[in-house]
Each structure stands twice: as C-alpha cells, then as structure tokens.
Amino acid sequence: MKIKLYDCLINKLSKILPDYCVLCTTTSANGHGLCSECESRLLPSTDRCVRCAGEAVAGYECGRCQSHPPAFDRTVAAFNYREPATTLIHRLKFNGDLAMARTMGHLLAHHVSRHLDASVQQRPQLLIPVPLHRGKMMRRGFNQSIEFGRVVARQLDIPLSPDLVIRSRRTRTQRTLPLKERRANVVGSFKLTRPPQCQHVALIDDVMTSGATLEALAQTFKSQGVERIDCWVFARA
Ligand SMILES: [Zn+2]
Ligand SMILES: [Zn+2]
Hints:
Blueprint: H1 2-16, H2 36-41, H3 63-67, E1 74-80, H4 85-93, H5 99-115, E2 126-129, H6 134-140, H7 144-156, E3 165-167, H8 179-186, E4 190-192, E5 200-208, H9 212-223, E6 228-236
Helix pairs in contact: 4-5, 5-7, 8-9
The structure holds zinc ion (ZN) (2 copies).
C-alpha cells in the first residue's frame, strides 16, 4: 500500500516538475531522466549470445553456452558495461542516488519490450530482483535491483516479487574474486521462501559479469520446477 502511494506520488510529481537529466542536469525532454545527448552515449548491447549475452553472432548461442548450457534460458542486456551506464549504476549502488533507479528501470523496460514480441510465451509471469544478503541490505539500506526492478515491473505490467528468494549464505563480493572462483562462491547461496507456483520468471540485476550469481539463482528456481528463466540486466560486462 505504501509503495503504491509512493509510486502514485512520484508519477504525479514527474508530470508537474521539469525533468532534469540525471547525468548532465540540463532540462531533459524524454521523460525518464536523460537528455537525448546523454542517452545517445549509452552503448546498446549488440552482437550478443541469446542465452548469456556474451560476445557471439547476434541471434545465436555462443560456443560456451552450446558446450555447457547455463541454467537460465535467455539473457537480455540493455547496454554494455561502459560509460555512462557505469555512472548510472555506481551512483545508484554506492551513492544511494535513487533517481538513477527510475532512469535505469525505464531504459531496461524499453529495451526488454522490444524482445517481448506479441507471443505470450515470451512474457515471464514474475520478475525476481537478485537478493542481497541481509547484512549487506542493512548496510546499504536498499537493494538496487529491487529499486529499478519496481520501475520495470510497472512499465511492463508484470508483478515483481522481492521476497520469494533470499540469500541464505553470506558470500564474498563477486567483484573482488577472480572469474574462476565466482561460481564456487555463490553456488547454493539462494533459498526460496515458498513454492514459486509459476513456470517462467525473469531475474533482474544491474550488472552481469561472469554470470555466476544469475546461474546460481537460476539453478535454485530450476530445482523447484520453474521451466524457463530469463535474465534481464541493465549492463553486460
Ligand atoms: Zn544529459
Ligand atoms: Zn552464451
């Protein structure tokens, strides 16, 4: 109820107040916090593997996915993990600048909607933001994936479930580990709080690097009978 009131208030305010670009602060006209010049500097993630969004011929699976298929079935990445996408993510995550969530959510929803063609099978029934461990959540005060995931959910009219899965084990920050150790660090670290009762979910995260976190989360859902898992990420490293 509180969230609905807050969303409603933000919606109303955004119609009255001028829309400033969150990156360069000039008055912007595009309605989601970026001027057209800053938006044109974002590098769309193209020529990517349909399954893991790693480098590949567009529309096909990369060699790695063909030889070792991940637990998730599709990945949609909006942008390459380069400037200015990195600034948006860092300001949300490390500076707690929640205005970035609105911009990131709008951009990701817009990007994903181009992949969600008319067929109903493409639409997940539930959006799952990648959870933080309770200790990290308390230190940071928010989960960035919930913050911009909420905007994606509203834009695409798909429910967001921020409490269906928890991080049951504290893990080391993936960023600090060599790629080889990332998988072992997160495997088995997620736990569902109740049966998922759906066949198709999309996992929401800000950045996908090795894909190990999303893989561990996807395995958790697959082991509970979820048939299809997509990953929707704002940026792909
Ligand atoms: Zn700008
Ligand atoms: Zn791949």
